[in-house]
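Predict the 3D structure for this chain.
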Amino acid sequence: MTAPDRLCVAFLWHQHQPFYRASLDGPPEGAYLLPWVRLHAVRDYYPMAMLLDEFPGMRATVNLVPSMVAQLEDYTERGATDLWMELSLTPSHSLGEAERGFVVARFFDADRRNEIGPFPRYAELFEKRRAGARMTDADITDLRMWFNLAWFPPEAREGTARTQRIVRLK
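Done. Predicted structure below.
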């Protein structure tokens, strides 16, 4: 038996997200309980498409489940937001104590090695939280900014991302 000249490999990317909307019946504005669809869209979905564009001879199947597509469309076409986005857009001095506590507790929901550690200010804020130190308005502002920026993929942060073409399937 001889070895084949080519190896056939099937690439299947299955992109899914459960519904994070507070109500599936109501309007999407401000109704998302968790930010994961929005954040993964920034960090994962675009770089995957960019990778496929970089290797046009590669064939792959990308499965985008309807729940994920519907949520992305809520954000891009129907003005949906989530609590993380709302708190990111609120001036630090306008946040109440509960909101500030939420920011300090949840805006480190990122990979410590890849999304917090590489950024000295974000890492400094992480250590400040670990030490139990009170965060100033400037710290809260920086924390919200770093949380959102850290979710951008390295290609976007390093300036190597390309925007050659966007294919929209309906």
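The two ends are 46 Å apart (CA to CA).
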